[in-house]
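#struct-help
A.M.: can someone run this one for me? Single chain, 177 residues.
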Amino acid sequence: MSRIGRLPVEIPAGVEVNITESNFITVKGAKGTLEQQLPKEMLISKEENQVVVNRPNDLKKMKSLHGLTRTLVANMIEGVTKGYEKKLEINGVGYRAQKQGKKLVLSLGYSHPVEMEDPEGLEAVVEGQNVIIVKGIDKARVGQYAAEIRFKRPPEPYKGKGIKYADEVIRRKETGK
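D.P.: on it. Structure tokens below:
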């Protein structure tokens, strides 16, 4: 049995979970509402203040879907209660970030400023000039938007210039002098 899959997901107070026959799950909480279609093969049930995920058989596919399904439900519940955030740092002379309404304007050493529109349901907050915090309730979308921002100028290994995650360690190379 999957160690993660067999754990029940606690539903905190103030969170409403609805599960349909086709495993379409809707989670409503203080920060918003999330909806997701989960694998139809999994047996998802709501028991008192817990969501329990079971698998129909022990096929390899079902075993892999078991833990995944449980984790997706847990992430949705945590998203509507606490929310998620990713922190990015900008390193480099002249590199900076600004917020103009719903637009994130990045100066990254190109001949033009890079402008990015905040997606629906996500928010990018700029602290100082070199820290960007992406906030939202959907873990996957927060991570995806943070990755798109980082992709505009990934960190390079010689001087460490670029956009990196706050907890990321850049392996540095020695210059060939």
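A.M.: thanks! The radius of gyration is 20 Å.
D.P.: also worth noting: The chain has two helices and 13 strands.
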